[in-house]
Specification:
Aminopeptidase; alpha+beta; about 230 residues
Length: about 230
C-alpha cells in the first residue's frame, strides 16, 4: 500500500488550553510577529540562529515569510503556530512542529515566548499541549525537543514535562554571530506522566487528561478546516 500523501493528513485546529488558543499562522500575523521579535530581541539574538540581523524583521518581511509558512502548513512540510492568550487576545508564544517525518511518525517541537509574557508558564503549557496533540491528533510515536547548552529555561521545561534526556551533540547548534553551542537532546514517546492539563482541539470529543489514551489518531485522509 502506498504511503499517504502528507497533504491529505488531517491537522485539526485550533488547540485550546485553559489559557491559550494555539492556531496556525494567518494573513496579518507578520506585523504581530515583527513587534514580538523587536521586544524580545536580546533573548532571541542569544539563542535563535535566525535572529542575526534585527533590521531584517520588518512587518513586511515577516508577512512575506508568514505567507510562505501558511503554504508550508497546507503542504504539511511544517506546522508553525501562534499561541494567543485567550483572556486578552494577545499573541504570547510562537511554537509548533518541525523536522516532521510523517512516514516515520516523528517530529521535533520548539517555541519562543515574547518578552512581555515571560515568567507566566506559557512555554510549559503550550509544549504540554503540543505533546498531547502530537501523539493524539497526529499519531506521532516520538516527539523531540532540543536546546543549546546554557539555556537553563528550556532545560527546566524539558525536565518538567518528563522528556527523556538522550544525549549531547557537541557544537551542533549554530547561534548568531557564528557562535557554536552544544545541542542537548530530549524526547518523549507517549503522554504518560505529563502534568495535568486540559487540552482540546477541533473534533476532539473530550478533554485530554494526563493519563488518558491519545485520541484522534489518523484514520481517514481528511483535509483540515483552518479556523
Amino acid at each position: 500500500m502506498a504511503p499517504l500523501n502528507p497533504v491529505l493528513i488531517d491537522v485539526p485546529m485550533p488547540i485550546r488550553t485553559p489559557r491559550l488558543l494555539i492556531r496556525p499562522k494567518q494573513v496579518g500575523d507578520g506585523a504581530i510577529t515583527s513587534a514580538a521579535v523587536a521586544e524580545t530581541w536580546d533573548e532571541l539574538h542569544k539563542w535563535m540562529r535566525w535572529a542575526e540581523n534585527r533590521d531584517a524583521f520588518t512587518a513586511e518581511s515577516m508577512e512575506i515569510r508568514n505567507r510562505h509558512v501558511m503554504a508550508s502548513f497546507i503542504l504539511r512540510d511544517g506546522i508553525e503556530l501562534i499561541g494567543v492568550e485567550a483572556s486578552t487576545g494577545t499573541a504570547v508564544i510562537w511554537c509548533g512542529f518541525h523536522d516532521i517525518d510523517w512516514q516515520g511518525r516523528q517530529c521535533d517541537t520548539g517555541y519562543w515566548v515574547r518578552e512581555s509574557a515571560h515568567g507566566r508558564g506559557f512555554a510549559t503549557e503550550a509544549t504540554n499541549a503540543l505533546v498531547r496533540y502530537a501523539f493524539g491528533a497526529l499519531g506521532m510515536r516520538r516527539v523531540g525537543l532540543t536546546h543549546s547548552g546554557g539555556n537553563e529555561a528550556s532545560r527546566r521545561i524539558a525536565e518538567r514535562l518528563g522528556f527523556s534526556f538522550e544525549g549531547i551533540q557537541r557544537d551542533a547548534n549554530i547561534l548568531p554571530g557564528g557562535r557554536c553551542a552544544d545541542r542537548y537532546c530530549f524526547a518523549r514517546f507517549d503522554i504518560a506522566g505529563l502534568p495535568d492539563l486540559e487540552v482540546q482541539w477541533q473534533g476532539d470529543g473530550a478533554h485530554n487528561g494526563p493519563d488518558q489514551a491519545p485520541r484522534n489518531r489518523l484514520k481517514f485522509p481528511l483535509l483540515s478546516v483552518l479556523n
